[in-house]
Amino acid sequence: MDGLLILDKPRGCTSHDVVLEVRRLLRLQRVGHAGTLDPEATGVLIVALGQATRFFPYLSGQDKAYAGTIRLGYATDTYDATGRPTSEDRAPVFPSPDEVSAAMKSLEGVMLQSPPPYSAKKLGGRPAYRLARARKTFALTPVRVTIRAFTLKSYAPPFAAFEAACSSGTYIRSLAHELGQRLGCGAHLFDLRRTASGPYGLDHTLSLGEVESAAAQGRIDKIVIPLEELLPEATAVILTPEAVGRARNGSPVPFEQPAESPFEVREAGEDRLFRLFEPSGRLLGLARLTAAGSALRPVLVIP
């Protein structure tokens, strides 16, 4: 049982709780998730089964999209609605819609973002949230992220509904906190729903109930996205029978750019990812270009 389940994570459970439930339902040990969602957040959660767990380095780095609500007026220690206020409630005075939109716009682009103190980031092997609960003083290393879009959808003070598109590793809680600082009124994330992770959106999602029903009816294969359909943005290359043997051993296989290729391979760089297929259509693995650009070097081979 190898492939992906795109689930709609319910509110009130951790991403790991979802993994444990899928393991129970499918009686499968090799299950994992890509892209953690906070317990109170909902939406798209990629769950990998079997060999698909080896694709995490490529799946977890994809862009994400969100919709949610930010509560203006005061900040909290967790940067969301579960925390304690760390600033006075300035409810009588709220910025205008134009001011909120302008502040959101100013946060778009590449930035160094500090993760929330109450997060799973580790310091000395301990999660930051445990240090925060113990009232320890510490600082988390800022991470470079890209906010591709951060827009105001509706505004009824103190609540600002928003949509955001960002690079992997972005904390929307930190984005809400930073918005409050820029506006000078404090803010925290009130609710959040992930609407897309890479190519998968809410229209691809299943509930845990649907997974349970499929398992009971013996039709899990009908809801699992197979390995052959993963990473559709990566160029597909069908190998010759001779090249299949070389690739299985991890050896580079010759590659010649097709005459009518829609991209320039040698200009793409060595980081461009390719999907290697056997003549039968089975996915053999993933590869990258060698430095010379004339061969594909396997980086992942499926048994």
Question: What report would you give on this structure?
Answer:
About 3% of the residues have low confidence. By secondary structure, this protein is an alpha+beta fold. Strands 1, 2, 3, 4, 5, 8, 9, 10 and 11 form a nine-stranded mixed beta sheet that branches. The protein has eight helices and 16 strands. α1 runs parallel beside α6.
What are the secondary-structure elements, in order, as H or E? EHEEHEHEEEHEEHEEHEHEHEEE
How does the helix and strand content classify structurally? alpha+beta
Q: Which regions have little confidence, pLDDT < 50, spanning 5+ residues?
A: 259-268
Strand content: 25-35%
In CATH, the homologous superfamily of the largest domain goes by the name: Pseudouridine synthase
From the alpha carbons, calculate the radius of gyration and give it in angstroms. 22 Å
What CATH calls the topology of the largest domain is Pseudouridine synthase
Shape: globular
Query: Span from first to last CA?
Result: 13 Å
What oligomeric state do these chains adopt? single chain
Helix count, DSSP H or I runs of 4 or more residues: 8
Second-tier CATH architecture of the largest domain: 2-Layer Sandwich
Summarize model confidence as the mean pLDDT.
89
Give helix % range. 10-25%
